[in-house]
Predict the 3D structure of the following.
Amino acid sequence: MQLAGRVANTFRADGRLLVIGTGASGSLAQILAGALNHRVGVNRPPLAAMALTADGALLSGLAEDASVEELFSRQIEAMGRKGDMVVAFSADGDSPACLRGLVQARESGLSTAAFLGRDGGRIKNYTEQALVVDAEKPARVHEVHLVAAQILAQMVERQLFSL
C-alpha cells in the first residue's frame, strides 16, 4: 500500500498524522490514530497521530459558534504544520467538514489522503491519494475502512520498526 510509505515518511520527518471524519467515520479516525499512537502488533514507541474528532467541547463550540463545516478546517489551521499529513474518512465522499478540512490542509501545505466510499464524491478531487470503496451502503464502506485502517497501521509499523 503506497499510503503506508507516505505515512511512514511523515513520521520519519517528525510530522504528525491528523485524522478526520464525522459520525462513524469519526470513530474510524480515532481507531487509526489510536493504533498508530499506541501499537498494532508489537511494543514500540508511540507515533504522533491524533484524531481531530475526540475533543467534544471543542467540536460542539466550533459547531455552535462557527459552523459544522469548519470542525476540522479550524483545527488544521491552528495545529497543522509543514510536514504533517491529514487523512480523512468519509463513507460517501461528500462530508462538508472533511472537504473543508482537506482544503485547509492543502492551503497550509500539508499532505493529504482519504478513505472514501461510493464513487469518492467531491473529496477525491481534494486529496492526493484516496482509497475508494465502491459500495452504496455506509456499513459496508465502514467495514472495509476499518480493515484497511488496521492494515495501514500495521504496514506503517513494519516500515518504521523493521518488523
